User: Which sequence fits this backbone?
């Protein structure tokens, strides 16, 4: 595995020091890690020299760059790309390479991106630009027969899975309109960033989820306010999330969850906000 | 204790997932699910009593939340139950919080009309 090769060649103290720095200051850490995606610090190069001798280092660095895997889509990788490209729409497209390696490619399709498209591209660039690998399995919860998939509601932090059916049920901003609360695109941003924080920085759920919520809020254009659940019957619960936009507009998004799958998504403008007729 | 509550509480422990909503409890087996589905408001006093036991308080809290239909948050706590899940998926729950949870459920049960969510318990 390429990522394991990288870890073996890199001295543990240097890796730990960088990880600690990144965890303490995620914004700076993210930038540093992006810049480091195709380069190596002095400690890493020294380790390579000790292992291989100076003449071989150049060749090894080149090999590592080629082997570098940064975001890997397992399961229905093509389904992930299709949904991500529905969200992004313009300027970029998600491409799946050999082994599920995810990359972003520029396109000639012009126009202003939606907020969720901008944030999805930013998060994908962040994760792809990190030399440490993040792997996510994309599933279809409505048709999967695996018992563990019944526990994937949108995503699963411990299982590193995303349910494309659940994300598609919430649609994209291109489909439901801007300013209508959470969408599948915003939640895809949430899940990818959350897995990145877990797998690369070893963050617990509370920490990674808080980061994911911040990115989700950027994608939506409003923070998630109250979020409540109530049990409707033995098999179904109802989830209600409230979003307040900067102009005072308040939107509720409600859906039902049965057997870990999302159905019957409703959106309601509770308050039209300032300046609305 | 009612047969339903006793049967439910004697089975396996709650398992936890974490997703976009926050934390999510799961019962470990189909038998457990069926036992939970048979619980009703008649079982509430016994379930509240079970909140006092370190072995059963999490399961009792999950059952009470389901049976009563109260509205609840899933993050940062699950209906007032504080827990953490590390990057490996291991969950930690401090049993000391069962005292406050029991107080909150007793307040809720004694209220007339009963509120749509658990009272703070202060």
Assistant:
């Amino acid at each position: 595995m390429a990522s394991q090769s990288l870890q073996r060649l890199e001295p543990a103290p240097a890796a730990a020091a960088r990880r600690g720095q990144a965890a303490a200051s995620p914004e700076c850490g993210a930038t540093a890690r992006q810049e480091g995606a195709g380069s190596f610090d002095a400690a890493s190069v020294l380790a390579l020299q000790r292992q291989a001798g100076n003449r071989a280092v150049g060749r090894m660095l080149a090999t590592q760059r080629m082997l570098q895997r940064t975001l890997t889509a397992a399961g229905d990788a093509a389904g992930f790309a299709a949904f991500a490209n529905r969200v992004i729409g313009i300027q970029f497209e998600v491409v799946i390479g050999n082994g599920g390696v995810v990359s972003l490619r520029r396109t000639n399709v012009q126009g202003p991106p939606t907020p969720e498209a901008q944030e999805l591209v930013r998060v994908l660039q962040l994760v792809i630009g990190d030399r440490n690998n993040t792997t996510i399995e994309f599933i279809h919860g409505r048709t999967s027969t695996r018992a563990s998939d019944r526990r994937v509601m949108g995503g699963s932090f411990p299982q590193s899975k995303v349910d494309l059916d659940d994300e598609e049920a919430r649609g994209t901003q291109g489909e439901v309109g801007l300013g209508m609360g959470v969408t599948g695109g915003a939640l895809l941003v949430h899940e990818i960033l959350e897995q990145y924080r877990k797998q690369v920085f070893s963050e617990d759920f509370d920490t990674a989820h808080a980061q994911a919520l911040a990115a989700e809020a950027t994608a939506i254009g409003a923070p998630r306010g109250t979020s409540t659940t109530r049990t409707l019957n033995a098999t179904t619960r109802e989830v209600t999330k409230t979003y307040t936009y900067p102009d005072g507009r308040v939107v509720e998004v409600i859906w039902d969850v049965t057997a870990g799958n999302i159905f019957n998504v409703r959106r309601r403008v509770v308050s039209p906000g300032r300046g609305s007729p | 204790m009612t047969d339903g509550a006793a049967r439910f509480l004697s089975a396996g422990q709650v398992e936890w997932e974490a997703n976009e909503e926050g934390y999510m409890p799961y019962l470990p087996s189909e038998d457990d699910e069926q036992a939970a589905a048979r619980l009703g408001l008649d079982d509430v006093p016994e379930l509240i009593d079970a909140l006092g036991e370190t072995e059963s308080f999490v399961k009792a809290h999950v059952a009470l939340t389901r049976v009563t239909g109260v509205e609840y948050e899933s993050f940062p706590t699950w209906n007032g139950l504080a827990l953490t899940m590390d990057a490996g998926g291991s969950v930690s729950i401090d049993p000391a919080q069962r005292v406050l949870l029991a107080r909150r459920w007793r307040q809720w049960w004694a209220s007339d009309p009963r509120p749509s969510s658990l009272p703070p318990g202060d």
Summary: Residues 41 and 76 of chain B are 27 Å apart (CA to CA). The mean pLDDT of chain B is 92. Chain B touches chain A at residues 17-24, 26, 33, 36-37, 65-66, 69-76, 84-89, 117 (CB under 8 Å). The helical segments of chain B are 3-10, 30-37, 44-50, 57-68, 98-110.
